[in-house]
Amino acid sequence: MHERSLPASPNWYCSRSSDVNSSGLLGVGAKNVIFLIDVSASSCRVTGELVGHKDLVSGFSFCQHAGQSHICVSSSSDGAVRFWDSDSKALIREHAAHQSPVAAVHWSPVDKNLVVSGDEKGIVVCHWYNTGDTASFFPEPRTIFCLTCSPHTWSSVAVGYKDGMIVLIDVSKKGEVMHRLRGHEDEIHSLAWSPMASEDALFSRPEDMEGSATGGGSAGDEKGCYLASGSKDQTMRIWSSAKGKSVMTLKLPFLKKRGSAVDPGVKERLWLHVHWPKGRPTQLVSSCFGGELVMWDLTRTGKQRWTLFGTSSEGQNHNRIIFNMSSVCLQDDRELLISTSMDREIKCWDLASLDCCWTLPTLGGFVYALTFSPVGAGCLALGVGDSMIRVWNTLTTQNQYDTRCFWQGIKSKVTALAWHPTKEGSLSFGTDDGKVGIFEVFSNRPPQISSSYHRKTVYTLAWGPAVPPMSFGAAGGKPSLSLYSCAGEGIILQHDPSKLSGEASDIDKLIRDTNNIKHKLSPHTDFSWKPDGKVVAIGNEDGCIEVYEAPSLKLLCSVQQHHKIINTLRWHHDHDSPPELHCLLASGSSNATVYVHDLRSIIENPPESPVVLTEPYRRLCGHTSKITGMAWSPHHEARLVTVSYDGTAQVWDVLQEAAVSNYRGHLGYLLCVDWSPDDPDVIWTGGKDFTLQEWKVSKQEFTKPPKGKKMVDLREKMKTNPKQKRKNKKAPGAGGAAPPETNGEPVAGGEKVATGQELSGEDEEDEVSSTNSPVPPSVSVTFEMQRKPFTAVKSKDKPDLNLLKKKKPRSMLPLSTSMDHRPKEDLLQDCITLASVRHSSAPPAGCVPGQGDHIHLGLFSDRQALYRMFEAEEVGHVEAGHHDSVVYLRLWSGDLEGALQLATEKGELSDHLLSIAPMAGFEVWSRTVEAFVKQLCLQEQYLKAASHLLSINKLYEAVDLLRSHKLYREAIALVKARLPADEPVLKELYTCWAATLEKDGHFSAAAKCYLAAGASFDAAKVIARKNDVPSLRTAAGLARISGEVALAQSLALRCAKDLAAAQDWIGAQEVLSSQESLLVHRLHLCVAALMTAMLADSEAAAQPRASSHHVSIQDQVRDAWEKQFGVSRDSAGHRSAGALLQELKSAESPTPTANIPLRQVQLYSSLHLTRAVLSWLLGDDGQLIKELWQAVAWLRDAGHFGVSAELCRLLFPDNDVSVCSRKHSKVLHHTEEEPEAAAKSLQAFVDYHHLYEHWWSNSIQSRFPPPAADSGPGDEVEGKALNGDATEESVSPETQSRDKLDFDASVLLSEHHAACQATQRSVSEIQERLAAMVLKHSRAQGGQLDSGEKEEDAPTQISTTAEPLESQGSGDAGQRPEEQETLLSLSTKMSEHQKRLVDLPDTIKIYPHPDVVECCLVLLHLSKSSPSVSESLQQKAKDLLRKYGTDASVFKASQQFLT
């Protein structure tokens, strides 16, 4: 097809847009095409393209399985995934499973039918090549950047995301996430699996091992494989897929670049690609900061770990970041690595030597210009849309792609080139932004730039003889060569190459002076100097070609052949050809026909006055679209090659008017062509598809351009859309990679080919495939794009084709405009009518300009006619609903007030109308502003409305407007900026805003509003509403600063309680320390902290400590108070014990329940302990003992029996409640009844705990283990001992028992308390029976009695339990209670028992003792196994059991002692 070719640049910022198969065929995604390049030979060769994607190719992958290696898959930003046959270049199948741009695709190395792709929305799709089925998964709602299939397990896929997350999924389990690999902090650019199917150790240093203590070696037991990842965070990581952890991190080395080191602090543009070559499990290849390739040896450490590629000689490396790498092992055992880079080069590396084998340059834009040097053999210069010039030595044998790039000083598309005809290496260039300069290609100097810029794109450059005024200074009468440039604004400038800093001259001035021309010259679009320098041909925008004689530029002739813009002119060369051919001028325009004129007679015999030529010498017909470039063969006589928008290049035999050969290898329209200077059969062409192609004339299949289809399509389009022709005049450039016959069409003139204006989509596409956006924006390439300066369509979504065409604005004068679209005869008649109106006193009959059939003539007649036309147009606009157009017409006619009134009525006021309203006076302007404000409010543009109110000094109205729409922030800013600080409105705004913020839960913002409004109390309250510790602490501080003392104390106390509940004692003390008046609460927290710590210490020790504490807790509290807070018996003022106790009495102390957490219970208990110590300091023994009793009772009543017992030990180390303190010699003596009762109760419980300790300590093989901390011994005893489970055999006869009890157990056997407890038990039993009787009765009423056994069981069990009680306590043992008892009798018994309870002394009920019956049983058990219980004590216990042990379970247990 073609010999050599420079393909389009590979796409940037794609994780895998290139791949190579086992036979050495490389596929590279460039724009929307995949280029196929054979890399197996010593040099590369482009073998073809895969064409069909509508958008950028984002991923490409070969099937690496034998027999299928020619099959490949690609993905695109248009959401499509396509399967291709690379041998036949044909599409096999297309899948449209994605709705978003696809970011990555990979063909599984394990399963020959599985392809996995992922898109920007995070959706992963599995495609099955053999069946065409697809399956979608959504593992993470994140943007996918890359993915790769495992080479060992078909179902394992690693997916890398934009935010640095890597996920391993199992596609056989509906995309189930196996591991989430966290560690990277930025985009994942690349993932690569290890070629080895196990996780053997890769490193020797222990500090490298991150995942586990044993590194990767131990993971070999599990089924896993290493995974490498490269990220934008400048690190690579090696992961264990078995453990889901990172095992190694590699940081990119900061290499010296261009003479200076890379600064690690500067965020450089980076793409970190990693590649794990097959057969090299310990070697990893990665890209680096500036285009270097690094080989990592994972078994080494430090600087020995990495080696740079291409160090054997200079200039081997890429000079910009690398995007993709792929490797292949060829049959000749060469292992090659292919890399693509931002520097637009594809390089091939030998992995054995790490040297570069060859470099293939690629092109990142349209090829606008190509030209061979007339001096340097085979030296080809290319002007490309990627802002670079390439100079290619095409005759080099060693390196077939020996090119050099020139980019300095260009900064825009290179649209024109011209070699100096005699000076070797001097190359002039012109750019899209109008710049003209000269490069010396054999030096490294930057170019010389002309100080005279064109305003638009440079079309053509040429060297020619100097003409005035520059020729005046030529030495010796021999004119030097000047550089001429023609550009889009239609002028030709003459630059002095020896003095480019000087001003260039416009040759139009010389043409006018020489030829005495007064009228405007047509804009020039191309020119060509005849090789001998005698004449110059200039093509114009109107299709005319003018031939001028040098040096005066006298006009010789004008060729009126073309009717559209001239795009290209070429004179036949004058070497080795007959003289009759020397004056042939070929021309191409936006017509599809090429004309050749023979100007020999005119040049050799110049006429006195210019002649006009209307007939060509030869006419070359065949192209179907505009001609963009041409070149005469230097090897043949009268042989011409032309290139066209029809996408083909055509070789002509001009004299025979015959088509010789047609080349169709490009995908878009062609822009430039040149004939090889050394091979008569070779031609070079470049075009819109970003490629330069070398092809042989003799090898082409076709001789003529394709015909028919495009012209038929165009005619059909013109029939269906008559306006299309006008549009085409503005949008000539057919875009894209469609088949050649669908590219471009013959469209009307007015433009020049290969211009920056018309470069259609070019560098929109051009710079698109090479922009900095991570996912390159999409550009559709199958539609005509408008001639605009290149502003790329930077959108990730596919552009709407209709939106890209500029929408034509609605006409202000549609009726009169429509009259200009009538038949040609009517339009010509209008001219006659208008002439009659203008030049005769009486207009023709029935003709009133501006009315009726002559409405359009109002524009060309007097003002009254114009007003009549306006009135008619207004009527039409009102009927169509275009009131804005009516407003403008009234405005133009001077009726400003009427225009504003109409716009107000229709709600179509605008900023523009408001800006001109002051012209009608202040009142009109003010009314208009108010009307516009209402209109803006309806449109919810409240800020704009308020701003307009300010313009008419309605400040308060503006504030009210903002406040009414809850724009408080803006309203406050406005008031503070415009009004005094004491403005009442301001406080009101703050208060309203605070209420709104508080309602929405924004408490801190609401507090700021309250503070600004002077409501400190409210500010503190609103912050405290959050009710967490930081909020309460802040609120307390705020209240204290603001002087709200009572509130500050309350909030500080709340905060301290929360901290104390969490046992953050230091934090609680800090909160309270700022308030002097809260000293007593600090004392309380000090007690609570001490008590909690001492209880925790006691629990930590397993042994019960009967007398281990020689210093009681109250002694420690007293010492701490005196040391830390200065509170003692002698302190006075607010530190006196009396004042502190009075404050503390107000503290709440609720009734104990089992639902209160232990920490809270300890706080309440410590409160009573605090009061006790304060009473001690005051010398109030009665209050002291009562508070101590309360401290212990709180824990006991809340169900924490073990903690209560431990507290007793801490309070009374000697087990004597009368000894309050040994350290301070405090012994209690009680004279009053209540303190004495409290002391006895407290002593009873101390002895009760001691009794159980004595019992347990005397049991070696006890069946009764100590109870849990939260359960009392009574539960255990009643559950086991009292049911008769314990027998004499349960205690070993060899027990080491004590001789006697070391405490007075008689306190436990209080008859008064036994009677009280028996009565209370009887009351509770009767209550249970009454409740059961009521329940049974209610169920019988509801018919639910027989609904199940469970309903019947409860009352029966209760009554059975009660039976022994009744049989013991009354004489009715012969009958069941159910049969005997009634509601009345039970109620009577209840009354008797309650009366009995009322008659008991209050001290017995307030200060209870332990269960007397239980203590009797325990003492009698002890007496059987130990002589420690005296006979009198045993007898007293038995008497009490007989009298009060009437409960069923107790009665059964007591029989063994009483019989």
Written account of the structure:
By secondary structure, this protein is α+β, with helices and mostly antiparallel strands. The chain is 32% helix and 22% strand. The protein is built from 38 helices and 61 strands. Strands 44-45-46-47-51 form a five-stranded mixed beta sheet, covered by helices on one side. A four-stranded antiparallel beta sheet has the order 1-59-58-57, with no helix packed on it. It has a four-stranded antiparallel beta sheet with strand order 2-3-4-5, with no helix packed on it. β57 and β58 form a beta hairpin. Mean pLDDT is 81; it is low at 204-208, 211-221, 722-751, 753-804, 1102-1109, 1260-1299 and 1345-1379.
Please describe the topology of this protein.
Blueprint: E1 5-6, E2 18-20, E3 25-30, E4 33-38, E5 45-51, E6 57-62, E7 71-76, E8 81-85, E9 90-95, E10 102-107, E11 114-119, E12 124-128, E13 134-137, E14 144-149, E15 156-161, E16 166-170, E17 176-181, E18 188-193, E19 226-231, E20 235-240, E21 245-251, E22 256-257, E23 260-261, E24 274-275, E25 283-287, E26 293-297, E27 306-308, E28 322-329, E29 335-341, E30 345-350, E31 355-361, E32 367-372, E33 379-384, E34 388-393, E35 403-406, E36 414-419, E37 426-431, E38 436-440, E39 448-449, E40 458-465, E41 481-487, E42 492-495, E43 505-506, H1 507-515, E44 524-529, E45 535-540, E46 545-549, E47 554-559, E48 566-571, E49 584-589, E50 594-598, H2 600-604, E51 611-613, E52 618-620, E53 627-632, E54 639-644, E55 649-653, E56 658-663, E57 670-675, E58 682-687, E59 692-696, H3 709-720, H4 724-730, H5 762-768, H6 801-804, H7 814-818, H8 824-839, H9 863-880, H10 883-892, H11 896-906, H12 911-916, H13 922-938, H14 942-951, H15 955-964, H16 968-978, H17 984-999, H18 1003-1012, H19 1016-1024, H20 1029-1041, H21 1045-1061, ...
Parallel strand pairs: 47-51
Antiparallel strand pairs: 1-59, 2-3, 3-4, 4-5, 6-7, 7-8, 8-9, 10-11, 11-12, 12-13, 14-15, 15-16, 16-17, 18-19, 19-20, 20-21, 22-23, 24-25, 25-26, 26-27, 28-29, 29-30, 30-31, 32-33, 33-34, 34-35, 36-37, 37-38, 38-39, 40-41, 41-42, 42-43, 44-45, 45-46, 46-47, 48-49, 49-50, 50-52, 53-54, 54-55, ...
Helix pairs in contact: 9-10, 10-11, 11-13, 13-14, 14-15, 15-16, 16-17, 17-18, 18-19, 19-20, 20-21, 21-22, 22-23, 23-24, 23-26, 23-28, 25-26, 26-27, 27-28, 27-29, 29-36, 31-32, 31-34, 36-37, 36-38
